[in-house]
């Protein structure tokens, strides 16, 4: 992706590095294999992810209209949260299904970024999901968790965030 100097500087200011992150073939293999384990308890993992997000960044909770003014305990057992969690995890699954098809992955994530613009999502919130996902899946994987798995998932979420933010800043 080639930017003019002013455009590149503008992208960096908005949290979008000039270079799009890339995944190695091994990283793709790692996330695909570990996803099989994560899927076994996908709803719980997703709830842990969002509860961690709301606990560490309370302002994010207010960005979701259905979650505004609700206690964390209420949310933990909320059908609305579980519904949103399953949508997010379904998106992760769709990303993995397209991991070897960059054009399809880009299209999916650009559409998702554009939708988040319509929801008035703050661009800096996009980067918060990856670390919370890792926080939530680590216990689900137990002894199978390794630094290599953590690195692969972190890089995947950097790629997801980058592509979504491309649609949000252009």
* Oligomeric state as shown: single chain
H-E order? HHHHHHHHH
> What is the helix fraction of residues, given as a range?
over 70%
What is the straight-line distance between the termini?
A: 13 Å
How big a fraction of the residues is strand?
under 5%
Low-confidence stretches: 1-10
Largest sheet: none
Number of strands: 0
How would you sum up this structure, described in words?
By secondary structure, this protein is mostly helical. The chain is built from nine helices and no strands. The protein has helices at residues 5-13, 25-38, 42-56, 58-61, 72-76, 79-97, 102-118, 129-141, 147-169. Helix 3 (42-56) crosses helix 6 (79-97). The radius of gyration is 16 Å and the shape is globular. The two termini are 13 Å apart.
Secondary structure elements and their pairing?
Elements: H1 5-13, H2 25-38, H3 42-56, H4 58-61, H5 72-76, H6 79-97, H7 102-118, H8 129-141, H9 147-169
Helix pairs in contact: 2-9, 3-6, 3-8, 7-9, 8-9
């Amino acid at each position: 992706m080639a930017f003019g100097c002013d455009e590149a500087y503008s992208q960096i200011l908005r949290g979008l590095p000039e270079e799009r992150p890339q995944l190695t073939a091994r990283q793709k293999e790692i996330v695909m294999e570990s996803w099989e384990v994560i899927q076994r308890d996908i709803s719980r993992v997703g709830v842990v992810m969002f509860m961690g997000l709301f606990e560490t960044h309370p302002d994010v909770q207010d960005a979701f209209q259905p979650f505004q003014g609700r206690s964390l305990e209420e949310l933990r057992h909320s059908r609305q949260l579980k519904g949103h969690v399953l949508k997010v995890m379904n998106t992760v699954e769709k990303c993995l299904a397209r991991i070897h098809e960059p054009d399809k992955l880009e299209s999916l994530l650009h559409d998702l970024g554009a939708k988040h613009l319509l929801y008035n999502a703050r661009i800096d919130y996009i980067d918060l999901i990856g670390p919370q996902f890792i926080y939530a899946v680590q216990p689900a994987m137990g002894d199978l968790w390794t630094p290599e798995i953590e690195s692969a998932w972190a890089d995947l979420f950097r790629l997801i965030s980058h592509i979504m933010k491309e649609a949000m800043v252009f």
